Amino acid sequence: MSNKVSSEIINHLKAIVGEQKVLLGDDDLQTFGKDWTRIYTPDPSVIVLPKTVEQVQAIVKLANAEGFGIVPSGGRTGLSGGAVATNGEVVIAFDAMNEIRDLSVVDQSVVCQAGVITEQLQNYAEEHQLFYPVDFASSGSSQIGGNIATNAGGIKVIRYGMTRDWVLGLKVVTGSGEILELNHGLLKNNAGYDLRQLFIGAEGTLGLIVEATIRLTRQPHNLSVLVLGVEHFSSIMNVLHAFQSKIDLTAFEFFSEKALQKVVDHQDLQRPFDSVCDYYALIEFESLTEQELEHAMSLFEHCMEEGWVVDGVISQSLQQAQNLWRLREDISETLARWTPYKNDLSVSVSRIPEFIGEVDELVQAGYPDFEIVWFGHIGDGNAHLNILRPDETPMADFVAQCEAVSKQIFEIVQRYNGSVSAEHGVGLVKKPYLKYTRSAVEIEYMKSVKKVFDPQNVMNPGKVFDL
Questions:
Q1: Range of the domain at 79
Q2: How far apart are CA 93 and CA 113, in angstroms?
Q3: Tens of pLDDT along 51-77?
Q4: Order of all β-strands in the sheet with 249-256
Q5: What is the model's pTM?
Q6: How is residue 311 annotated by DSSP?
Q7: Where among 173, 201, 218 does a domain terminate?
Q8: What are the residue boundaries of the FAD-binding PCMH-type domain, all occurrences included (predicted)?
């Protein structure tokens, strides 16, 4: 497969989408050719912004005929390098395919094009007294197609599940250029294989998601937020069990003191309380009645009496709840200035304390001069390890030092039967480590599936695994 496409191919692309929708400027190539990883040097040939499914299909058929690779680009908020074009590929950006239509309040569903921004869908649902619960810090810029392609998780998984739990149907263009309508928005359909699930989380390696039927639900009401400080990580699990056994939680997050310090220093926020603790738990729940709120407060007092919790605060207003959430949600944005090396890890919820303890001991020994910041979705077993790059350390040296220890981290993940990528995908970053989560047999089956849908390997080539 050639690196850069020819001027003749570029002219074909212009004929498909129009000259104004084919971008060749250096700034555009840099912007659309990468995601948030910042590790790889983007080198796409051209950026194409289709408006219709038929245009996407025509581009894919051209790729098969001419032998060039395609990299799909959504909101470019990914953290695994899955949307990075490093080898002269044609980038298909879905920014122009951003329509929402066909709302059904009876079915509680809506049809979205791939380029719909997550927050756009959330606001649309709210306008119709409904709720789209998949949420994360990048909801203001991430796109639905990218969320589906990576099976995005976020802060509400403990109550609402992952993105795949909200996808009723998909329209996709396969790697060979065929258009498939998958599941037709049905809640129940046991007629053979559910091919929709193959495309969810496939990171664009089987084909391009162009449209999705998304399930919605009722809006939550009177959400209250608790932030609790704990001295020992194992105490967080005691708190989780105490609350989860009595209350239907909508979120249960955690972050370290170092994470809190960074956010408070750089986001003009206040600490939740005066006590300084090693870790903090953020708990969200619906308090529909005064009795439910009192019940939550009695659980808080129980945790204090047991010595699990040192201090805590509960929101008294919507604004306070939003500010408490920012202590957790603003962490990624805050840490971006250090270009952190991220590890997105998961194990069974019950094994989180011993797992984090073992990994923390390893990274502290391996990176004695680097700051280590932990946060994550503890209620679903997902922990984010962030190693901050010192200003004086060149990026290449920093990545090399981090990768030297990553193998040992993933060996721990493997012993715990965990995942090297809980919600950010594999892309380029995690490709060398896929074997620590998937067996050799599984990987061979994945490759076989790709060859069925993308026989010429034009779809996001080189991502997840090498053929």
A1: 7-96
A2: 12
A3: 999 999 999 999 999 999 999 999 999
A4: 311-314, 223-230, 279-286, 249-256, 371-377, 382-388, 341-346
A5: 0.94
A6: E
A7: 218
A8: 40-219
